[in-house]
Amino acid sequence: MTAESFERAPHADSAASYAGAGVDIEAGDRAVELMKEWVRKTRRPEVLGGLGGFAGLFDASALKRYERPLLASATDGVGTKVYLARRLGVYDTIGHDLVGMVVDDIVVCGAEPLFMTDYICVGKVHPERVAAIVKGIAEGCVLAGCALVGGETAEHPGLLGEDDFDVAGAGTGVVEADRLLGPDRIRTGDTVIAMASSGLHSNGYSLVRHVLLDRAGMALEAHVEEFSRTLGEELLEPTKIYSLDCLALTRTAEVHAFSHVTGGGLANNLARVVPDGLHAVVDRSTWTPGPVFDLVGKAGRVERLELEKTLNMGVGMIAIVPEASADVALTLLADRGVDAWVAGEITERGDHTTGAALTGEYAS
Question: In terms of domains, do 315 and 204 share one?
Answer without folding.
Answer: yes
